Amino acid sequence: LLADSSSHENLGRVLHAMMYARQAKEAGMDVEIIFDGGGVEWPAELADESHKLHETYSNLKEEDVIKGVCEFCSDAFDVTDELEQIGETFLDEDQGHPNIGKKIAREDIRVITI
What we know:
Blueprint: H1 8-26, E1 33-35, H2 42-46, H3 54-62, E2 66-70, H4 71-76, H5 80-85, E3 90-91, H6 100-105
Parallel strand pairs: 1-2, 2-3
């Protein structure tokens, strides 16, 4: 998920990313959500119990669908402290970024960017 938290449109993007991930999981697929780019702003917001998408986010965390956030982008978007406070996992396999290339290289992996 690359959409930052600056607009109503991007709230729709995070909603749909989580909804599609839930649907794929319910259909028996292995699914992962990684927050990257501006998307690293979302986990701290979604972890707030008053957020309307908190329950969906929490359920996906419990089901191990939400895999973490880009460490480099967390620093770049100045949200590292907030993400550490909620216990988010930082992904840093390639110079501080998640290694999406390894995932793409597997024949059974499809990457959807929202």
